[in-house]
Amino acid sequence: MRNFVARKLNNGAVLRESDEARLDELVRNWRAMPARTDIISQGDDPEFVHAILDGIACRYKILPDGRRSIMDLLIPGDFCDMHIAILGRMDHSIGTLTPCRVAHISRPEVEDLLQEYPRIARGMWWSSLVDEAILREWLVNMGQRRSDRQMAHLLCELYLRFAAVGWPEAFSLGLTQEQLADTLGITVVHVQRVITALRQDGLIELRDRQITIPDIAQLMEFSEFDPDYLHLPPEH
Amino acid sequence: MRNFVARKLNNGAVLRESDEARLDELVRNWRAMPARTDIISQGDDPEFVHAILDGIACRYKILPDGRRSIMDLLIPGDFCDMHIAILGRMDHSIGTLTPCRVAHISRPEVEDLLQEYPRIARGMWWSSLVDEAILREWLVNMGQRRSDRQMAHLLCELYLRFAAVGWPEAFSLGLTQEQLADTLGITVVHVQRVITALRQDGLIELRDRQITIPDIAQLMEFSEFDPDYLHLPPEH
DNA sequence: CGTTGGTTTGATGGTTCTCAAACTAGGTGG
DNA sequence: CCACCTAGTTTGAGAACCATCAAACCAACG
After folding, report:
1. What GO CC terms are in its UniProt record (chains A, B) (predicted)?
2. Between chain B's N and C termini, which has fewer beta carbons within 10 Å?
3. Which CATH number belongs to the domain containing residue A210 in this structure?
């Protein structure tokens, strides 16, 4: 089992063996969570910082009328809540979408990590800035593109993010259409129509409710995807 | 002339006189910039960190087809590019929307500030996290609300953000309809229709192309505005 | 006094939502 | 093993929202 946290941070900082060893230790405390379960809820002031080791989670808010808005997808290697120590309470929730393995690290351990492991601290800093850049690109995506391009753009991003942590299997996405709808801000019905359209154009493939990408370059061109905002090292 | 940077940071940290004095010094280097001018352009690796002292600026990207997407509005007290030292190159541009006074602070000065003034450093850290929270709320706003609510929500946010730095004049917004359109991801024509509708409902007032808010509570209710995400101290 | 940038208004069309219902696959209990 | 139930997917018809295109209007400015 590889350490996806270390792999992710390695994109923004050059870690040494001692760094990776420490991360391996910290990541040893984890628990399995079923799909659709909150890791942290809005209003919490949690004691632990969490990292996703396996599965897909999301940041989300529930609107007054009951709709859910997903503002970020968290994949293996992603931290959930590094910021909570400063802001105090959570202004949104974090929950699993698929079954997940979630590591929990105590606040003192995080403090120690940031103080004593400067390369890791730099990687964390880099990581949170990339998260912000992703958020900005989502804003562009939702504001300016039609929903088929939106969907394609999201898939391109996930493809690259999974690749950046060296996801072992070929990329395949097992989210439900409702989860995709809440992410893109469109209805389930329309997600369905967009997916069938993309499938008919040969841009994606669908087997057992899993989306795969036959030709990433083609999908990137279709969605005007520019990977610049992910700030990945050149080889990706 | 008050120091809006200090006022803003005071919302997230308790500054002392020495802190404010240092900020006063740093902010002394500024230049006036006309409207519609880039402070930093995409691809730059700038030498200075900038802060808005007066006027309104924005983060934006230009899409391949020429459209502009505004992803953040920067008001007096806001820093533009604290993150650039880590990420290297800018993945978006920052430009003025109205005439601005912009302070520029050298990288060594910023380093010193973060090292030697821990309360300021904490305020900066808080500030960047709030920026991220604002970005998330914009995503919710654009994804889930109709354009009249979107507009109202944006106006509520700006009202509170200006209030949080103690903006001297009563709130009034002097952006063009095109600038608002690029921010909300809708067309100029539709901005026009939304504005007249809000005006007819008495939710906003319009004089000399300046939008004012007669009753903020009413506008907040209309747009389902929950100020929680701004993480302001209770008095606001 | 023409030019320019911005606002306002109208008509039409496309994208996406809403409502409604059928269908599929997996799981559970009789 | 089958009947039922549930969550998720698929399809259709009509309406709402917003975009597009086009043109008039207005104020500031040289």
Report:
1. cytosol
2. N
3. 1.10.10.10
Q: Which nucleotide is nearest to B145 (CA to C1')?
A: D17
* CB distance B41 to B103 below 8 Å: no
In whole angstroms, give the CA distance from residue A93 to residue B165.
Answer: 28
Mean pLDDT in order along chain B per 10 residues (236 residues): 86 92 94 94 89 96 94 95 82 95 93 90 90 96 96 97 85 93 97 96 92 95 96 79
Q: Mean per-residue pLDDT for A224-230?
A: 96
- Nucleotides in chain C near protein beta carbons (<7 Å): 5-11, 15-20
- Write out the two tokens for B112: 């010193």
Among the residue ranges A2-6, A32-36, A81-85, B42-46, the one predicted with the least confidence is A81-85
Q: What is the pTM of this model?
A: 0.94
DSSP state of A92: S
Task: Please answer whether residues B88 and A133 qualify as being in contact, where contact means their C-beta atoms are separated by less than 8 angstroms.
Answer: no
Is strand C less than 7 A from the beta carbon of B196?
Answer: yes
Q: Among the three residues B95, B128, B161, which one is the final residue of a domain in this structure?
A: B128
Judged on CB neighbours under 10 Å (0-12, 13-18, 19+), B24 is middle
Residues A89 and A149 in one domain: no
Cβ–Cβ under 8 Å, residues B27 and B109: no
pLDDT given for residue B214 in this prediction: 93
